[in-house]
Specification:
The chain has about 100 residues and is of the alpha+beta class. The protein contains one helix and three strands; from the N terminus they run βββα. It has a three-stranded antiparallel sheet. A hairpin with a 6-residue loop joins strand 2 and strand 3. The radius of gyration is 21 Å and the shape is elongated.
Length: about 100
């Protein structure tokens, strides 16, 4: 079996915006062999009444960053599949001397 290892690193920091105030920001970076890295970002508002439990906003921001990363990876796979399927269909048609018709 051909095994591959992909690593995701999540960096969490404070993010301040004039519109939203203090937030927790997480960036999830996926590293794969031989491909461009994907980076997902997630934000979570910090509740000023919960200063003793910062993990809540860390968890929310990280979850949102992973969801963003997942969406990007899914979209990239769908685009690759569409290109590959189109190329394979054309190649198979050419192998049999057939013209490719679009529906």
């Amino acid at each position: 079996m051909n095994e591959k290892t992909w690593s995701v690193t999540i960096v969490i920091d404070d993010y301040k915006s004039a519109e939203t105030g203090a937030q927790t920001r997480a960036r999830a970076r996926l590293r794969t062999s031989g491909r461009a890295a994907f980076v997902g970002t997630g934000l979570a508002r910090r509740n000023p009444h919960h200063t003793d439990v910062p993990e809540v906003s860390d968890d929310m921001a990280a979850a949102r960053a992973l969801a963003d990363l997942s969406h990007q990876l899914y979209e990239a796979a769908a685009q690759r599949e569409a290109v590959t399927r189109s190329a394979l269909t054309s190649a198979r048609a050419a192998d049999f001397g057939l013209r490719r018709f679009s529906a």
